[in-house]
From TrEMBL:
Protein name: LysR family transcriptional regulator
Keyword Signal attached: yes
GO biological process: positive regulation of gene expression
Family per record: Belongs to the LysR transcriptional regulatory family.
The HTH lysR-type domain, residue ranges: 1-58
GO molecular function ontology, one term from the record: DNA-binding transcription factor activity
UniProt xrefs under SUPFAM superfamilies: Periplasmic binding protein-like II, Winged helix' DNA-binding domain
Entries under InterPro entries matching the protein: LysR_HTH_N, LysR_subst-bd, WH-like_DNA-bd_sf, WH_DNA-bd_sf
Gene3D superfamilies, sorted: 3.40.190.290, Winged helix-like DNA-binding domain superfamily/Winged helix DNA-binding domain
Extent of the signal sequence: 1-20
Sorted UniProt keywords: DNA-binding, Signal, Transcription, Transcription regulation
């Protein structure tokens, strides 16, 4: 069994055909077919069935492919590291985070970073959760800030903070007289967001409403919290939203109330799982934790 045979097998499995595999490997189709035939002889069982001009993997091929993928993980991570080094300008730290974090948590962090690392450029992208993970995985971000999600190969995750979501009410809303709100208090209200097809960040909100049998009138949906806060301020309805932005919109007259039982989410820091964390990124992570806690304390 030779490495080139394994590469051909993996390419066919990933691309779905010999033609596409030959393009991936930059070799001819007959060469791919020959490598597959040699591998089948080496392993002692058929890997593909040929039907209607197409190849279909056998059950044995599926099992072998799982083992091949595990063996290629280290090589893929090395490729990722090379992309990170190639794309990373000297003296630059790249952050990918949720828009609420970029707006409410990072400004004081950036001020402190400038004082300590005045010569280092910082880029900040405000993205959704999936895009944050993709940036970190591809080595296009040195630090990601998002919500807890399923583990992903190539991404190192550390806890940031757990945040209890709040209810944002339009100025003068009838529920503003309560110090805190029960989920049941929201029954019948015009509710802004979340979108059902949005990130898993929103699942806990829908689950809490359903668990208490609360029906809300959902006439406006949005995926991100900042526009939701703005729609609340405009009097279009109420919403259950992340608490980081609360103090910003309280200045505009939005009423903020805690919700009981609490609806909490774990926020996390993400880094490419390659080597030690660079000192500026490590410093940033520590200060983001401090400022996130301070932001929640003042919300």
């Amino acid at each position: 069994m030779r490495m080139r045979q394994i590469e051909a097998f993996r390419a066919v499995m990933m691309s779905g055909g010999v033609t596409a595999a030959s393009a991936m490997l930059n070799i001819s189709q007959p060469s791919v077919s020959r490598l597959i035939a040699d591998l089948e002889y080496a392993v002692g069982f058929p890997l593909f069935e040929r039907r209607g001009g197409r190849v279909h993997p056998t059950a044995q091929a599926e099992t072998l492919f799982e083992a091949v993928q595990r063996s290629f993980t280290g090589l893929d991570l090395l490729t990722q590291a090379a992309r990170r080094i190639r794309a990373h300008p000297v003296g630059t730290v790249r952050i990918a985070c949720l828009s609420a974090i970029a707006t409410a948590v990072l400004p004081p962090v950036m001020a402190r970073f400038r004082e300590r690392y005045g010569e280092v450029k910082v880029t900040v992208e405000a993205l959704g959760q999936r895009a944050i993970e993709d940036r970190v995985f591809l080595g296009q971000a040195d630090l990601g800030i998002g919500v807890a999600s399923a583990p992903r190969e190539g991404i190192r995750v550390t806890p940031l903070i757990r945040a209890d979501y709040v209810c944002a009410l339009p100025p003068g809303h009838r529920l503003a007289g309560k110090a805190s709100l029960q989920v049941g208090d929201l029954a019948g209200e015009s509710f802004i967001g979340p979108m059902h097809e949005a990130d898993a960040l929103w699942n806990g909100i829908d689950s809490a409403l359903a668990a208490h049998g609360v029906m809300v009138e959902r006439l406006l949906e949005c995926q991100q919290s900042l526009p939701i806060y703005a729609y609340v301020e405009a009097g279009l309805g109420l919403a259950i939203v992340e608490p980081f932005s609360a103090r910003l919109f309280r200045r505009l007259g939005v009423e903020i109330r805690p919700v009981r039982p609490a609806i909490g989410f774990d926020f996390t820091l993400l880094e490419p799982d390659i080597g030690p964390t660079p000192p500026p990124v490590s410093w940033l992570a520590d200060v983001v934790r401090q400022e996130a806690a301070s932001c929640l304390a003042g919300s």
